[in-house]
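tool=predict chain=A
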Amino acid sequence: MACKRTPGWRRMAMKPMKLSIIPAGLALLTLMILGYIGPTPVPSPSPTSTPPIPAPAPAMANIPMVIAPYWYQGTWVFDDESVGLNKEPFVAGVPEMINDLVKDIPNARSGFRLLFSSVPFPGYQIELTRVKEEYGGYWYRVKDQSAEGWLCPALFKYFETAPETIYVKAEQL
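tool=predict ok
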């Protein structure tokens, strides 16, 4: 025997289900808020399981960065559109460091490639060690020398924090 369907039977059939879902959802939410129900626990690894794979280092961590300094109005400067710098000067001891670094590069004042990184890379020429903070920048000393120079806050266009050590290499363009 078939049931007789009256007009609006679908609307009436759905009402009880909607009403039962809402209170169940509210009850679940209330239990979660009160702390009786939490996220599904993650099983701890067994002593014989493989240790987790460490997260990879930042993509650029071991790749030297590159700028192309040149001589302009009595000092070394560089442009780097990618970080918004134009004729950014090296000051306070750094020009003297650069002069020593490029002494064997012909026409260095017309421009040369300067590679730098917070981690050693093949062929680096000098190692700069952080000495102290001053005026928003940091003083660095050439390892095993007394030469010191101040790197202005533009340093933070390349590093999140001032590195303990910066490795540097100069090359002909």
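The chain has two helices and nine strands. The beta strands are 65-67, 70-72, 75-80, 85-89, 112-117, 126-134, 137-142, 148-151, 165-172.
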